[in-house]
Structure formats: structure tokens, C-alpha cells
Amino acid sequence: MKILNLKTNHLINPVGYDFETLHFNWEVQEANQECKEFHLVVSKDVNCMKDIIYDSQIIMDYAFNTLDIQLDLEPRTRYYWNVTIVDVIGQRMVSDTAYFETAKMEEAFLAKWISADSETAMPFFYKNVLCKKEVKTARIYACGLGLYEIYMNDTKVGDEYLLPGYHSYDYRLEYQTFDVTNQLKQGENALSILMGNGWYKGRFGFDHDFDNLYGDKLKVLLELHIEYTDGEKDCVYTDDSFMACTSQIFENNIYDGEHIDMTAKKEELSVSVLDDTTSLLVGRSNPPIRKVAEFEPVVVSTYLDNADIASKLSIGGLKGEDSANVSDASGAAIESKSISKTASHLLLDFGEVITGWVEITGIIEKSYTLTLQYGEVLQNGAFYNDNLRTAKAEFCYTSNGEMVTMRPHFTYYGFQFVKVTLVDCNGVDLPDGKEVLLRLVEEGKLTFTAYRIMSDMEQTGTITTSNAMVNKLVQNTLRSQQCNFLDIPTDCPQRDERMGWTGDTTIFAPTACFHMDSAAFYNHYLHSLKEEQKRLAGSVPFFVPMPKVEAFEGINPFYVTNGACVWGDVATVLPWTLYLHYGDKSLLKQHFGVMCDWIDYITKQVAASEDAYLWKNGHHLGDWLALDNGNPHNPIGKTNPHMIANVFYYQSALLCAKAANVIQDSRYEEYLHLAEMIKSEFIKEYFDDNDCYVEELTQTACALLLHFQLYPKVAKEYLVKSLEELLIANDGHLNSGFVGTPFLCQALSDNNLNDWAYKLLLNEEYPGWLFEVKLGATTVWERWNSLLEDGSISGTGMNSLNHYAYGSIAEWMYRYVLGFSPRMGDEVKMLIAPKPSKLLAWAKGRIRTPYGEYESEWHVEPSGEMQFKIMIPFNANAEVVLPDGSSRVLKAGEHCFSVRVD
Ligand code: BGC
């Protein structure tokens, strides 16, 4: 027996977090077993032997792998915990010790915010710290705004980037805790803080050059608490004893990148101590942003610009329209391997789309500048990044002639391709630049390594099938999640946007929770959402965090409007999705207010329109980017946005009722009644006396009505038939947008059209998921036709190749191909109801839950016989429903079945 994956509040050994409530979770690896005796202890002792502050006592037949407790915790204290399990055959196992450590909690900050004005270069704060004797423990508590990195004796403190991350800075400021015990030496220590603009102060936000969104001064606050081995304590904190000078980092912001000039002279700056409040400071809640993967370029070639290509193509006899057909997304990479005699740049291809940056290691001649430009796709074999709109996405590094490993500090990029340029000290493009660079690369004197950075989360789901393209699609949906889970769930990681669009989360959250343990990440997002909602009297903005901007003529309405359906419904969908996947009641309780505030907000809107129970006012985006409205320039699909608003109003009311029921809140009846009333009014409004839908049906309308069961009973068959007819009429293709897509295949599989769901999945033509896989995509595109059949980009206005929304097909795959529907808070923790189709020979996969891994596997034999294998983890159970309609509740272990369906 093995006890592993001990998590406190969904994180392994969290340090410096806000522990309002404590949720412990562990996993037991042991087939065929259940827990007989359970015992959990929390203590201040590393071995959990003494200083016990919580003892669950032995609990018999404990049916959970989680425990919620409330403890009076002390600030700046590490607590240890372990569990002991005895299984039903008497095996006893004590887990390794896990820990969590509090931050300053209510303790007042001694530190003051300090700042230093600098015209161009970013400030660098420093102070020498004297350690009088041997250090027992040392911690730094810090927050820097915009962004900050701490160094101790010239070594970066911690392995995190882009601190303090992005949250609603106007209302809460999360500070971080660093264990620097091993970095402090006896004697003098150089403590320093490097600052950058980030989300707080740098250019950020689309459609306008917004900057200073949260403040116009970079500022930092830091406390270093030292405890010596003899028990004496010391504290160093930011005040007027800190000094500052200019750093060698110049322009920097999230969209445009960063400029570093290593030849720049450092100048002293005067430090001002600000009397800004510390009252907004709270312990962090976000998982750390770390480097999680490393990539070497798969192709390094000299860069072909469009002019080269054009001349090359005309030499080859291809002209005009024909030349556009020469390359596609995958062909383009092949094209880039050729070396043009006139090209002056290097082109790096990292083989897949990445969010992060490239690190350069090597020596460049003094005062020469290396510029890296980032792009997602080649066009006609050449570097391209016009779809990043105004985001420059570049990194400029001017060398001092020394050997370095250099990376950007305060920005990130979404890219697969990097164009490298070398210019001399006068900024002149070197005629032999490409030869110089290529030689350095070939001789190994200059290396480029890309790193994916993201909020560090554990992958929890896998799906593999007999179809290689489907497998790539699954990987692409995961990769788009990885690329967009950078402290907040962003829409895209590359263009001048990268915001926490709420609707994208409503759509993708269930997929995200299958793919990765997203509990802590989304909890952090919900904290910001809660703050934004307070300001909007329960309404929800289009993106979270939502910077406060002054309205001006011509401002993009997304900054000054809010409260649209689907986008706003993140407030109910997200907490409930987390509850289904992680079964954490305390988390649901914490965010129940967010749920209620949203539903109450809609109810107020409804009352204002004098329409009982139906939401007919407000501005909604509807089925965003659907293809069914006949106008490719109108992003709003044909399905009536108010009908969609009412579907989601109904769903949100129902989710509030369900949540109230779980946490035993008195509003259960009220919300249930509301949901029932919305449903009956909805049916009256949208179905006529003949039980027919009153508007023109679309794929999305059918999918939503069927999925949420919003129809008069007798209309079900007609809706199912209509959906099939609509698919046939559209040549067997989908045409749904952000809102309809997650429900389309689910509605088909639930209504005897399962093969249709598989057909949509397996369709390689536009529009469909495999169309982009066929064109070489490694992530999910924003539009069904982000690239056209010939590989050319379909437009630059709003066209990202890394937008996870349509990746919601992976949710259908987890739920219907593998059959997993988690409900971790219930007594029966999982529904496993795989729905195979002969269109796939086999599928298998697993999801890691708070109880451990569930596995599901099937194959269809030529005879039509279906073989199923299911694994249920220790102490867990599942209701297994097979395609023949049979159902049973099963406990831990492996279970095999054979079913014949004609
Ligand atoms: C974003 C989306 C978002 C949409 C809403 C886009 O610019 O990238 O994903 O949901 O706008 O209007």
C-alpha cells in the first residue's frame, strides 16, 4: 500500500498561502481495498509525534480521502500532517509527512512600500543584510508591483516567475513567501529586488494603449524574518535604509516584450518611502508560475522573408495565386529549412506552440544587439506575426561581450517560431548576420532553449484512441490549456489581449478539470471574480481581473459593460464544476456568495424588464463565432442570444439550488423554485401550441434545448430529429460557436445519435476539429478557419491559433468516449458510462481524482462485441452504466464486461 499525493487545499506542501479553511486530501494506491481505520494528525513537529494541534482520532470505515477542518493557526508557522490507514485486510500504512505553512495572517507589516523614480530603466532595489550568526530559518514575505524578482547574493530566490502574478490588484494584493534559509550565509548578504511593469503598470488591454492600469509607480514591500540557531530573531524590511539604482532592463510589458542593455551604466536612484496602505495584502492563493518544459529548436534555418520567397517562387515559375498554394502550416516548416542566399536572419522552429520564452546562452560581440521576435505560424515559409495585432512580442538583448544566459523577466510570448536578428552597435543589420549566427549555433557557442512557463499544475487526464489524429487533437486541447493557464485562464497567450475572459472559462472549465488539477488555479481566479463582482453589484465583467478604466468616446464597450449570459455564468458554472471534480465542500461554501450574487443580479434585471422569470434585456454575445449567421464578419451566431441567456439563467438557478443543497443553505427552496419557474416560462415562450420551437432551429439551439432538457416532453423527438436534419443539411458538419460546441456532441450522444457525435469528431474537413489537426496545428484555434485550407491565415483582426474554447470537445471525450462524469462530493463518486461507436476501434484513458486514478478502456471487436475494462481506486466507487442499459454500483478494483449491442 502506498499513500501519496498529500495535498493541503489542493496544493502539495503550500507555503505562504491564505488558509481560511483547511482541506486535506490524499490518495491510496492499493487495488481491491477499502479503508478500515483512518487517522489524521496535524502537528508542529516534523515527525508529527509531539505538538499535536489536531487529532482526528481513529475513525472506522472512513469512506473518504478528504478531510475538512477548521484550526486556529498561527502566523509564519509550518504545520505538518500525516495519515495512517489500515485497510480491510489489516495492512497498516503511515504516509510521509506533508506540510503547509502560514504567511503573516493578521500580523501587521513592519515593511513599508518603497519606490524609486527612474526615467527609462527599471529600478533595482538593494540592501546588505548582515547575518550575525548561524541561521536556523529565514523567510521573505514580499509583494512587488508591477512584477518583481528577488535575488540573494546574486542568485534568484525561488523558482517562480512573473510574481506576484495577476489578480484584481485594486482590491487584494497577494504577497509571496520565500524560504531563504539556505541562501543566507553568515556575514554580509546582498539582497536585491528587480522590478518590471507587468499587468499592473505596463501596456495592457486591447483596442487602446492603456497603461498604468493599477498604479503609476512601481513599488515593493518586503520583510525578511531571520531566526538564528540560538533562538534570537531579526527582521529586515523595506524602508529608507534600502538603496536603488537603475537596472539594465528598459522597455518592458506583457505584450511588447523586453529590452535589456548589458552595456548600460547603472545609476543611483533615490528611494522614497510611500505611505501606501498595507491593508490590501493577503497571503497568496495561486499555484506558482514555473518553467514546466524545455524545448530545443527542431529546425534552425536562415530566415526567408516574403520578398525572398516571392523571388524564389517566381524563379520556380509560380506566380500570383498559385504561389499561395505552395505552403501550408506544416509545409511551411519544410519550406523554412531551405537557405536563401540573401536572407539575413535566423529562424528557429520549436516544433510546437509554446507559452513562455527563449533563453539565450552564449557570447555576442560587445554592443551588438540580438533581437528575437515571436510568432505562432509561418506564412509562405516566412516568419509572420501580424495576428498578434499591436503586440510586438520581441526580446532585445544588447551584449556586454560576456558569456551569458539571458531570458526575459517581465513578459512572455505565445510562439512556435522565433526570428533572430543581429545588429551592430549602430543598430545596422549585419550583412553577414545570418552567417555569424548560424556559425555560432553550429559550433554550439550560441544556444536557444525555449521554456514553457505556466501555473504549475498536475496533469490528471489522458485519452488515447485508435485514431492518431484524434489523439493529436486531445494533446492540442491540453497544450492550449497549458499555454493559457498562466496565473489566470487567458483567452490566448500571444496577441494584445491575454485576458481572463469569463466566457471562455465557462466553456472550458469542465475540460480543464479533466485534463489537470485545476482547483487551486480556479480558486485564485474566483477570488478576483468575487472582488470584481462586489464593484458591479453582483454582475460579472467580460474579463477577470477587470482593470478600472475611465470611459472615453470610442472606448471598446467590453470595458464598460458587463453582465452578459455565458460570460457571467462563470460565477455559477465554475464553483459547481470544481465541486463535481474535487468534492471540496469548503470551497463551494467559499464561493457560494459569488453564485448567489450572479443569479440575484440576473433576477433584478429580469424584474426591471417586467417579465416574470425570463431574461429579455441586456446585451449578450450569444453563440460567439458560430458559422450559422451567414455573415462571416458578424461574430454572433444565428441562435437568439436571449434564448441562450434564458438557458443559462435556468442552469445558473439550478446550480445555485444544487450548491445550496450541498452546503445546507436555506436558499435551496428559493433557487429550486426559481429554476422551475424559469423552465416553465421558457417552454411557454419558446414553444408554440403545437409544441414546436417558435424560432428557426440551429444546431446550437437544438444542442442547448436537449442538453438542458428545456422542452415540452413531447417535443424531444422532434428536436432530436431536427438536429440530425440540420447536420445532414450542413453536409454532416457542425456550425456551432463557443456556446453550442461544448453541448453539441453531448446532446447527440445522449439522444441516440451517438454515431453522429463520433462523425463530427472524426470529420477532417472544415469546419471540424480534425481540420486544424490535418493542417499541422499543435494547439486549438480560435476560429474553425483560423487558417484556410492552403495554410494562409484567414484574418488578423481576431485570430489566435491558441484559444482553448473549442477544445471543449475533450470534455465530451472524457464523458462519453471514456464515460467519466465525476461527482466527487456524492456518495457514489463517479458515473462511468462509456458510449463507444464502431467508428473508433478502441479507446482508453484515465483521470486522477482526489481518490486516485479511475481508468476506462474499451474495444469493439469485428463481431460487434464490446469489451470494457474499468478500474476504480481505493476507497472509491462508481456507478457503471454500459451501452446495453445495464447499471451497477461498483467498488475499488478492476472490472471487466463484455456487451453486445446491435
Ligand atoms: C476573446 C474571446 C472572448 C471574446 C468575447 C475575444 O476577443 O479572445 O475569447 O470570449 O472576445 O467577445
Word description of this protein:
With 902 residues, the chain is of the alpha+beta class. The protein contains 18 helices and 44 strands. The strands form nine sheets. Strands 21, 22, 26, 27, 28, 29, 32, 33, 34 and 35 form a ten-stranded mixed sheet that branches. Strands 2, 4, 5, 6, 8, 9 and 10 form a seven-stranded mixed sheet that branches. Strands 36, 39, 40, 41, 42, 43 and 44 form a seven-stranded mixed sheet that branches. A hairpin with a 4-residue loop joins strand 8 (78-87) and strand 9 (92-94). Residues 491-492, 497, 501, 503-504, 621, 624, 798, 803 line the site of beta-D-glucopyranose.
Which features does this protein show?
902 residues; ten-stranded mixed β-sheet; seven-stranded mixed β-sheet; 44 strands; 24% helix; globular; binds beta-D-glucopyranose
Describe the main β-sheet briefly.
10 strands, mixed
Shape: globular
Number of strands: 44
pLDDT below 50 for ≥5 consecutive residues: which ranges?
A: 307-343
Instruction: List the ions, cofactors and other small molecules found in this model.
Output: beta-D-glucopyranose
Rounded average pLDDT: 93
Question: Could you give a short description of this structure?
Answer:
With 902 residues, the chain is α+β, with helices and mostly antiparallel strands. Helices cover 24% and strands 30% of the residues.
